[in-house]
Amino acid sequence: MPDLLHLLAFVxxxxxxxxxxxxxxxxxxxxxxxxxxxAGVVAALGITAGCCVHIVAAAVGVSAIVATSAAAFAVxxxxxxxxxxxxxxxxxxxPGALQAGLAAQQSPQxxxxxxxxxxxxxxxxxxxxxxxxxxxxxxxFVDPAAAHPAGVFLLLGLLFNFNALWVCIGWAALAAxxxxxxxxxxxxxxxxxxxxxxxxxxxxxxxxxxDAPSR
Length: 215
What we know:
By secondary structure, this protein is mainly alpha-helical. The chain is built from nine helices and no strands. It is a multi-pass membrane protein.
């Protein structure tokens, strides 16, 4: 493991990176606005589970194949892009759900939590940029001379993911709090979900037109 100073730098960098809004954040915020903090937390847990797949894959070298194989990257890129576009379109098609505010949590038409978890998991797993991120970021804090570098990589990745979970839960809590304050402002809530849907859709299109990493 890195020394205390490098470990603190790793944790701080990870927290700052996770505070930056991305497709995962907008997926969490969209569900928290629509169905409350519980849906947002479940979305965060699904995304965290997806990150665990990337961490383990990177630790055993699978993500390195994606990083160096244009074909593997292209397949995962197009599948992930298509899924993100689909998620974004779905969010744009149901903006009226936010009008119900907190009542949506008890609505029989509310999206099942299991589906929200699965959506968060797939949103993360099908994004090759997440795999490449772990390959680029975590090794900077792994000593090549370590007895078990793969094990150190795995531990650091899980630490990053653990810290990221609490940041994601914070995003869910903030979005749910805003929904409670705006539960009478239906127009504002509809535009909030439209904005989240457009951002997710944009991330999908950006992923679709991204280039494979240089070898």
